[in-house]
Amino acid sequence: MLSEQQVIEQTKNWIKKIVIGCNFCPFANREFKNNTIHYQVAFSPKRSDAREALLRECKRLDRDRSIATTLLIFPNAFSDFDDYLQLVSFAEKLLIQKKYEGIYQLATFHPLYRFENSAPDDPANYTNRSIYPMLHLLREDDIRKAIQFYGNAEEIPERNVQFAREKGEVYMKMLRDSCM
Questions:
Q1: Which of 13, 63, 93, 130 is most buried, with most CB under 10 Å away?
Q2: How many distinct helices (H) and strands (E) make up the chain?
Q3: Structure confidence at residue 76 (pLDDT)
Q4: Domain boundaries, the chain
C-alpha cells in the first residue's frame, strides 16, 4: 500500500507531465509553481467518508485563501468508472445542498475516464485520465479571472482533444503511466 506522500508525489508528477506538460490546463502551471494546490488523500473506500472529505476541503478553502485549488485523491476507492460517476453526481448535489454552488466547481479525473459517446480507446479521454480517481475543487472566482486573462478559454477542450488524438492512445497511456 502506498503512503500518502507517495500518492501526492505521483499526483504532482501527473500534473507536471500531463496537465502542464501537455498544456491541458494553461492555468495550472502558475498554481503549481506558486505551491497553491492542496493535495488531500482519502484512503477510505466509503462514499460517506468521501462526502466528509469533500466537505472538509470546502471548509479548508473557506478558511484559507492562500489555497487556490484542492485535489481530493482516492487511491483505494472508486476504481470502477460508473461508481466514480455516482460519486461525482453525489458530490455535485452535495455542493448545491451545502450552498457551495457558484463558489466552488468540481473538475473530474479518473484513470478510466471516458467522455460520453466516446470510444474507450479514444486518446481524447486522456485529457481527463489521471493516475487515481480525483475530485478537483476550484474557486469559481479564480476560474473567471483566469478565463478573462487567458481569453478564448472555450477553445481549450477542443485543442486538448486534438493534441491527444495527434499523439495517439499509446503515447498518452505511456506518458500517464510514467507518472507512477
A1: 130
A2: 7, 4
A3: 95
A4: 4-177
